[in-house]
Amino acid sequence: MKENLKTRTVSNLFWRFAERCGAQGVAFLVSIILARLLDPDAYGTVALLTVFTSILQVFVDSGLGNALIQKKDADQLDFSTVFLFNMGMCLVIYALLFALSPLIAAFYGNPQLTPLMRVLGLTIVISGLKNIQQAYVSKNLMFKKFFFSTLGGNHRSGGGRHYSGLPWVWRMGNRDPAGGKYGD
C-alpha cells in the first residue's frame, strides 16, 4: 500500500509538472504569435482588460477548492455545496464587472472597452465552473487526464483564435473553457 501511494505520487507529480509546463509553453507560443500579428493598440487593450479579470480572479479562487482537497472526508455534498457557492460568487462578481464596465471605459477614454470587458469577464464565470473540478482532480490524483485536457484545451484555444473571423482584439479576449485562462 505504501509503495503504491509513493508510485502514484511520483507519477502524478510528473503529470502535474508536465501539465503546467505544457500549458505555459502553448500559452507563451500563442501569445508570441499573436503579438507579432497584432498591432500594439489591440494587444495593449486586451492586456488592460486582463488586468481587471485577473484581479477579480483572486476572489473566485477563494481557497474553498484547496479546503476540499485538504478535508479528509470530503464527499459529494461538500463538492456540490462549494461548487454552488462558487458559481453564485462568480455571477455576483461578473454582474459587478458588467455594471462597472462603462465607468472603466470612460476612465480610460475608450468606449470600445465596455463590450470587450463584458465578454472577457465571462471567463470569471467559466473559471468558477472549473475550479471545483480541478480540486476533485487534485484530491483524487488524476493528473494524467488533467494534463491532456489542459494541453488540448490551450492548443484549441490558440488555434481557434487565429482562424476565427473575429477582429483581432476579440480573438485575444476569446478564451477556451477547457484550457482556462492564460497564466494560470
Structure description:
With 184 residues, this protein is mainly α. 82% of the residues lie in helices and 0% in strands. It has helices at residues 2-37, 40-60, 64-70, 76-108, 113-120, 122-139, 143-163, 168-173. Helix 3 packs parallel to helix 6 (122-139), helix 4 packs antiparallel against helix 5 and helix 4 runs antiparallel to helix 6 (122-139). The longest helix has 36 residues, at 2-37. The two termini are 34 Å apart. Mean pLDDT is 77; it is low at 159-166 and 172-184.
Strand content: under 5%
- Straight-line N-to-C gap: 34 Å
Rounded average pLDDT: 77
Secondary-structure element order, N to C: HHHHHHHH
Overall SS class = mainly alpha
Uncertain spans, ≥5 residues at pLDDT below 50? 159-166, 172-184
Brief sketch in words of this structure:
The protein is mainly alpha-helical and 184 residues long. It has 8 helices and no strands.
Characteristic key phrases:
mainly alpha; about 180 residues; disordered C terminus; 8 helices
Question: Topology of this protein?
Answer:
Blueprint lengths: L1 H36 L2 H21 L3 H7 L5 H33 L4 H8 L1 H18 L3 H21 L4 H6 L11
Helix pairs in contact: 1-7, 2-5, 2-6, 3-6, 4-5, 4-6
